[in-house]
């Protein structure tokens, strides 16, 4: 039998998916939900808190809890594999591997990875889908010194993030977020119109021994968001 808090989550999710509750609408309070479902306030609070954590609802202190923007949201404060993010939302994850090969680092790529120009490095391009809709085009360059078997991996069954976290555990990262216009290739890979505004995340990750990878993560602006919560 489904737990009571899960029943509340399912009921609220159904109302959102059927547009009974729309982005920006205020949802019932903990007390109202507790009375409506015949549960404790703690149970109602757990249901709301989990929906907030999943990005479906957003809580505003002093005002209440509201339906979030419909676009999926990725955290700016943590680095997680995109398939984990999508599955946590209860959605279906699939991908398409576009490229998986070795290239000789040009001047820009050499700076990204801290290697000499002309060094053989690994390159992958993968489109990630949420419920069949493209939400991210990942173009990643990897230093073979820290992941020598990278190109041998089946990236239809795992992600680069998951694999690199195992062989070269992340110790630090830096990233830049900016708005860009999609190129023709990027538009085709993401199945969006030409010159679609996109959210571009450029991320460099480090292990204890050095720079492991540099990834360019491109999201259609009308399908994805980034955010986070800070406590002070």
What's the topology here?
Elements: H1 4-17, H2 30-37, H3 41-53, E1 57-60, E2 64-67, E3 73-75, H4 82-88, E4 93-104, H5 107-113, E5 120-130, E6 133-142, H6 160-167, E7 172-181, H7 184-190, E8 197-207, E9 210-220, E10 225-227
Helix pairs in contact: 1-3, 2-3
Provide a concise account of the structure shown.
With 232 residues, the protein is α+β, with helices and mostly antiparallel strands. The protein has 2 domains: 4-67, Winged helix-like DNA-binding domain superfamily/Winged helix DNA-binding domain (Arc Repressor Mutant, subunit A), CATH 1.10.10.10; 73-227, Chorismate lyase (3-Layer(aba) Sandwich), CATH 3.40.1410.
Notes on the structure:
The chain has 232 residues and is α+β, with helices and mostly antiparallel strands. The chain has helices at residues 4-17, 30-37, 41-53, 82-88, 107-113, 160-167, 184-190, and strands at residues 57-60, 64-67, 73-75, 93-104, 120-130, 133-142, 172-181, 197-207, 210-220, 225-227. The strands form three sheets. Strands 4-5-6-9-8-7 form a six-stranded antiparallel sheet. The chain has a two-stranded antiparallel sheet with strand order 1-2. It has a two-stranded parallel sheet with strand order 3-10. Strand 1 and strand 2 form a beta hairpin. Helix 2 crosses helix 3. The longest helix has 14 residues, at 4-17.
Strand content: 25-35%
The total number of structural domains is: 2
Helix content: 25-40%
Q: What is the overall number of helices?
A: 7
Helix- and strand-based class?
A: alpha+beta
Q: SSE order in H/E notation?
A: HHHEEEHEHEEHEHEEE
Largest sheet: 6 strands, antiparallel
| Shape field | elongated
- How far is it from the N-terminal to the C-terminal residue, by CA? 40 Å
- Spatial order of strands in the largest sheet: 4-5-6-9-8-7
CATH architecture of the largest domain: 3-Layer(aba) Sandwich
- The tally of strands reads 10
CATH superfamily of the largest domain: Chorismate lyase-like
Unreliable spans are none
Mean pLDDT: 88
**Which value, in Å, is the CA radius of gyration?**
20 Å
CATH topology of the largest domain: Chorismate lyase
Name of the level-1 CATH class of the largest domain: Alpha Beta
């Amino acid at each position: 039998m489904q737990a009571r808090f899960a029943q509340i989550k399912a009921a609220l999710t159904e109302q959102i998916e059927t547009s009974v509750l729309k982005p920006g609408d205020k949802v019932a309070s903990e007390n109202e939900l507790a009375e409506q479902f015949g549960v404790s306030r703690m149970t109602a609070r757990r249901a709301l808190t989990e929906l907030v954590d999943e990005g479906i609802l957003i809580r505003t202190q002093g005002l209440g809890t509201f339906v979030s923007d419909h676009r999926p949201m990725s955290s700016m404060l943590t680095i997680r594999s995109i398939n984990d993010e999508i599955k946590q939302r209860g959605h279906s994850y699939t991908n398409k591997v576009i490229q998986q090969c070795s290239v000789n680092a040009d001047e820009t790529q050499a700076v990204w990875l801290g290697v000499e120009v002309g060094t053989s490095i690994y390159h992958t391009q993968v489109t990630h889908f949420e419920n069949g809709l493209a939400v991210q085009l990942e173009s990643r360059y990897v230093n073979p010194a820290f992941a020598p078997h990278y190109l041998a991996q089946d990236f239809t069954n795992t992600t680069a993030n998951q694999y690199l976290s195992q062989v070269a555990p992340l110790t630090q990262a830096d990233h830049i977020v900016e708005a860009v216009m999609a190129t023709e290739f990027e538009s085709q890979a993401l199945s969006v119109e030409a010159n679609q505004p996109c959210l571009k995340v450029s991320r460099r990750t480090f292990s204890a021994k050095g720079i492991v990878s540099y990834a360019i993560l491109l999201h259609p602006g009308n399908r994805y968001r980034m955010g986070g919560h800070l406590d002070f």
